[in-house]
Design goal:
Blueprint (H helix, E strand, L loop, with lengths): L2 H6 L2 H10 L1 H4 L3 H31 L2 H38 L2 H4 L2 H34 L4 H50 L1
Length: 196
């Protein structure tokens, strides 16, 4: 039922309509009175919550920002996400090609970067079917089949594993760089002391 219709109908009118067709509902007079009281409470709460929502929208940045976020999520996110995933996959394949050359592959930091590129490729390739299914196919069909539930279960676990792998590789990379810089500074200090 449209909310504006509910606001225009009085509780007594709705209860009277139910009373007239009571042979299908089998309600007692006491039940009808409780229903009327509940409807008046719900209508009162609905009216006060609408006022609060309008006041909150005006006070915070929910107006334009919320409209932009809702429009972006419903119309543009799926296409933008697929574009980013395809572009990121191509860029990471190029990273792997460069980092696995003979002269580059011997450095441990390049191995970490290669593993990071592989984890990101797997994550983006797995995300493309999810975006298509969740944002494009599912809203049109309004059907959630068993295969879709299995895929969502797979997607949740694989993305968590790949995100965790990526975070661990980034942390390893940061520690490796810190140690490399620390050792360079220490060695420079020791060489300077030895020369003196």
């Amino acid at each position: 039922m449209d909310p504006s219709v509910f606001n225009n109908i009085k509780e007594s009118q709705l209860v009277e309509f139910i009373r007239e067709s009571n042979n299908t509902y089998n309600l007692t007079e006491n039940d009808l009175q409780v229903l009327q009281n509940l409807l008046s409470i719900l209508k009162h709460k609905r009216n006060t919550s609408n006022i609060v929502e309008l006041d909150e929208r005006d006070e915070d940045c929910g107006g334009r920002l919320r409209n932009f976020a809702e429009t972006y999520a419903s119309h543009y996110h799926s296409y933008f996400a697929i574009f980013v995933c395809v572009f990121g996959t191509i860029a990471n394949v190029l990273n792997i090609i460069v980092l696995t050359r003979k002269d580059m592959a011997c450095a441990p930091i390049n191995r970490i970067l290669t593993a990071l590129a592989v984890a990101d490729i797997l994550l983006m390739v797995e995300y493309i079917p999810y975006v298509y299914y969740h944002y494009m196919a599912l809203p049109k069909s309004l059907d959630f089949p068993y295969q879709g539930a299995i895929y969502m279960l797979f997607h949740v676990h694989i993305t968590q594993i790949l995100h965790t792998t990526s975070i661990c590789l980034n942390l390893t990379l940061a520690v490796w760089r810190y140690l490399a810089l620390r050792l360079v500074l220490t060695l420079t200090y020791l060489v300077t002391l030895n020369n003196v």
